[in-house]
Design brief:
This protein has 313 residues and is mainly β. The protein has 2 helices and 16 strands. It has a single domain, classed as Outer membrane phospholipase (ompla), Chain C (Beta Barrel), CATH 2.40.230.
Length: 313
């Protein structure tokens, strides 16, 4: 899978390079490439000086970027998206803590039989991981996640339906391979993120190391919906559902993203959002009497509110 990921990054880079070559030439109105880049920075801050009601000063920052390269010609379409997020929070009296951390790459190639239908025969690739270590705060001695621990790959074939304006897109794949990588051996030995954990003897010595990957074959459904509900208020919904045929079919992994984008002007925007994740392979961890205890799977919820600068080019 590492080779496959490297090959995909090569293709993604090639698409960017191809677009740059086109841009460097005399403008050509027949080009089939379109591109969009958006970078932003959100910040929130609260400070107290001799505040009688008490409180801790805090500052948070979130750097985000979305980059797309789309090729469309006739009945063919190739959509490539790269999304990155990284956020930090510093609260008075506490160490710097991470608030967001994500790298996501999506690539979808589709073909339709004519220019009338909204249905495409599609192949989809998706990759997710993070930049830096994650911790169950306040414990920062042992990471509970790292770069490529986990990393998720999805590769499948199916059908995609997209409206003419592209504000609504949904994809159905009855055959999608999901590969989970845990390239940190300590986490792999614990069986983190669903991989097979290490085998120990009666003295606690490792006989067989935990596996660094887990492969599944299942059913994938994704949907995307974007609409301006009132002037300068844009609603964005993203939903991903996955169920493995082999292990507990019907037990559905859920990844739901909801966002309201409030446009102040071309460069200033406010966002209100929430993300809900449920994955039976992800076990919650909790600090109990100074020890990190692994619990069962739980519903994960993240809420976001920010205002910041956005630049599109």
């Amino acid at each position: 899978m590492r080779l496959g990921f490297s090959f995909f990054l090569f293709l993604f880079s090639a698409s960017i390079f191809a677009q740059q070559v086109i841009d460097a030439k005399i403008p050509d109105t027949t080009t089939h490439w379109t591109k969009k880049n958006k970078v932003g920075f959100d910040i929130s801050e609260i400070a107290f000086v001799n505040w009688s009601a008490g409180g801790n000063s805090a500052i948070s920052g979130l750097l985000k970027g979305d980059f797309s390269r789309i090729y469309a010609k006739g009945n063919q379409k190739w959509v490539n998206d790269l999304s990155i997020r990284y956020g930090l929070n510093k609260q008075d009296g506490f160490e710097m803590r991470k608030t967001d951390d994500a790298i996501q790459i999506n690539s979808t190639f589709g073909y339709r039989k004519d220019t009338i239908t909204n249905w495409y025969h599609s192949a989809k690739f998706n990759f997710n991981t993070q930049f830096t270590n994650g911790y169950a705060y306040p414990n920062t001695d042992k990471a509970i996640s790292r770069l490529f621990a986990p990393a998720y790959f999805f590769l499948g074939v199916g059908a995609e339906n997209a409206s003419k304006s592209k504000h609504r897109v949904f994809y159905i794949s009855p055959f999608t391979f999901k590969n989970t990588l845990v390239l940190d051996q300590r986490l792999a030995n614990q069986g983190a993120f669903g991989v097979t954990k290490a085998l120990y003897d009666s003295n606690g010595n490792i006989l067989i190391n935990g596996k660094n990957s887990k492969t599944e074959l299942g059913f994938l459904f994704t949907s995307y919906y974007k609409k301006e509900i009132v002037k300068n208020v844009i609603l964005v919904n993203k939903l991903v559902l996955y169920s493995d045929y082999i292990n507990n079919f019907g037990n559905i992994d859920i990844d739901y993203d909801f966002m309201l984008d409030l446009v102040v002007n071309q460069y200033v925007r406010a966002t209100i959002g929430a993300r809900i994740i449920y994955d039976d392979d992800i076990k919650a961890k909790e600090e109990v009497n100074g020890n990190q205890v692994t619990l069962g799977p739980k519903l994960q919820l993240k809420q976001m509110l920010g205002i910041g600068l956005v630049y599109t080019f």
